[in-house]
């Protein structure tokens, strides 16, 4: 009888010959791309292959290779219809939790672990803080050793959730308790709960706005522009800071998605051949950016901006406004304090786009907390997940929305509460259409949220550093988008 180790070696040799560059099962830190990289883009994950090793003999090797060659249609890739195991199969005196928050492992998280242990005698929590989280965890997922509880790496797509994570319950059931459920779900099953949530809007230095006579948020784009002009005329501050050079802050202007078209905005966008037509969401959001730059209401030289320095500029009152998600408020308040001001100088206001006379904000989840389906500590891991998402208070301590519907509200969004801002969650794509919007963006070469290129050109046109006008550029974008829809076959 051929041993499992021999079969494994045989499979690795064959896979290497196919160019998959397999990381050895017992050496997850070995150099090279690893099977999981190939799994995400080409075939499947190592778990499927290693499950095949439960067979023995040459037939096992042939069967395992055949499974890979056929696209791994069986095994763990098949969605389950119920929540995963709820009892521990091991001793489970300690569970391992992987996190990207290396700065909190020895402080805040250590306190959470003490509380959890007190509530669950005989159970302890060990944290592994990982700086390059997405890449390192992706590599570790070549094996079964990727902690007991972890944050789902952004490289893992929803259709792969069932291969790696324990189902936590149905979307129908868990949506009664948690926000952002669809973001961590696939096939009606939930695999991850958001560790915190973010709202959309913009950060301001209240002293700067008050010095210009403004104490309430503008309700329309025209009001917003008028207020920026007041700031320019009445103070020495830069009314709006774009952070053009760093790039990613410009993608924050895509926060407008959903404020006009509602929860189905992304699905509408995937089929709309003229998103930059007057009155539509992307016309509204990108017009605010263009007009502010064109009217000289932003930094004089956008090519020299710096994100880290911009936090101090806003905190010290040299800048009045930055368009960012609510996640930034705690950082900005800290910067204000270090700059000699007060945390209360920084406030967060909703976009100047109302519906039926009410302000709105699109809320979305941060990293999703999941349980390794291979963990022998399913029950303890679930207890930790439930504690962390709720009673720990982590989300609100970070200035975020609690993932629980009944969770406390963060003080960073106090003005939202006073204004009665309505929170909106974007609907998922219909079954079979999950990749439609991404396909259109790729075909049109217009990346809305992960690349600032098209908005940097918008800024360049607005400041006279590139030829064109707002109307001509929006017409170009509409044509490219319409061509992208056609190319994507939608």
Tally the helices: 20
Query: pLDDT below 50 for ≥5 consecutive residues: which ranges?
Result: 1-82
Number of strands: 16
Number of domains as seen in the coordinates: 3
The name of the CATH architecture of the largest domain is 3-Layer(aba) Sandwich
Beta-strand portion reads: 5-15%
CATH superfamily of the largest domain: Periplasmic binding protein-like II
What characteristic shape results from the CA principal axes? globular
CATH topology name of the largest domain, in short, is D-Maltodextrin-Binding Protein, domain 2
The gist of it:
This protein is α+β, with helices and mostly antiparallel strands and 490 residues long.
Question: In terms of topology, how is this protein built?
Answer:
Elements: H1 4-18, H2 34-41, H3 46-52, H4 58-69, E1 94-99, H5 108-119, E2 124-129, H6 133-140, E3 149-151, H7 161-164, E4 169-170, H8 171-174, E5 185-186, E6 189-190, E7 193-194, E8 197-198, E9 202-205, H9 206-211, H10 221-234, H11 265-269, H12 281-294, H13 307-316, E10 321-323, H14 329-338, E11 346-349, E12 354-355, E13 358-362, E14 364-365, E15 368-371, H15 378-389, H16 394-397, H17 414-419, E16 422-424, H18 436-444, H19 453-462, H20 470-487
Parallel strand pairs: 1-2, 13-16
Antiparallel strand pairs: 3-15, 4-6, 5-6, 7-15, 8-14, 9-10, 9-11, 12-13
Structure description:
This protein has 20 helices and 16 strands. By secondary structure, it is of the alpha+beta class. The chain folds into 3 domains: 72 residues, no CATH class; 136 residues, D-Maltodextrin-Binding Protein, domain 2 (3-Layer(aba) Sandwich), CATH 3.40.190; 248 residues, Periplasmic binding protein-like II (D-Maltodextrin-Binding Protein, domain 2, 3-Layer(aba) Sandwich), CATH 3.40.190. The chain has a 3-stranded antiparallel beta sheet. Strand 1, helix 5 and strand 2 form a beta-alpha-beta unit. The chain is globular, with a radius of gyration of 25 Å. The N terminus is likely disordered.
